[in-house]
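Fold Annotation — chain and its backbone

Encoding — discrete vocabulary of local shapes
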Amino acid sequence: MNAPLPSLSDLVVERVGFGIFVLDRQMNVLMWNRFMHDHSGLSAEQVVGKSIFASFPELPRVWLTRKLESVFQLGSFAFSSWEQRPYLFKFDHDRPITGGVDFMQQDCTFMPIMRDREVEAVCVTVSDVTHVSIMQREREEAVAKLQEYADRDGLTGIANRRYFEARLRDEYTRWQRYGGELSILLFDLDHFKKINDQFGHVVGDTVLREMAQRVAHVVRAQDTFGRFGGEEFALLLPCTPLEDAMLVAEKIRNTIGDRPVDVQGVNVPVTASVGGAAARAGVPAYEALINEADAALYSAKRQGRNRSVAFI
């Protein structure tokens, strides 16, 4: 006698492009479709009637039990996104290894199966969203890179003026609210126009990049170092009194001027003038802090350059 033909619904469950399995309250498997067989390597005959944890001891037992129990108790659907938990089962995926994921990324739904108004079992679906997750990660990385580029000076690679002023505004607001210390340094390269005129703009650009690298190596991680425009640079020093900021100014000045810049065999001597200012009562806004540091910088220029001056 021929075996009965499978129903249309059975065929759909078997051949649908996502995983379907059913668990009772004791976590025993009641149904296991073809997707689950193909990706786990275990057939329905091997898992049905057994605890899901006996066949897959690596499953997150506490999390999965809690998820299923909430469906049994409340009789409502539950959902788990790959963004919350990247996967339930450690299934291989068919995406390039360059995608940066070890296992198939999965969305899971938990649906109550009712009988006489009681939840008799829970149907779990497992959807392969590896492609979506990789695309989203790549998009987020691209956006992050664009944001980083938007915050960076194209020539030197340090912060640009827009980003620097945004950080200064935030730190100034924090200082107004909580007090403490906050200082800023402005400095530029002395007689930079002469460097451009004598050696050309290509050499001038090389000098700017070299100076930015030298200073970047001596500032703290919590400080913000940026190019303010042309040959002028700025350094934001949170939690730093003016006296200490001027010690940093001298360190920067010496770092810049301790040796010439070698550009294609040409030694270009460089010095810098530095102006410093600190937040204090009576300074109405962060822009005023910039103006005070700028005034101190020009005072250093008038006094002969290659020196540091504090606004007092």
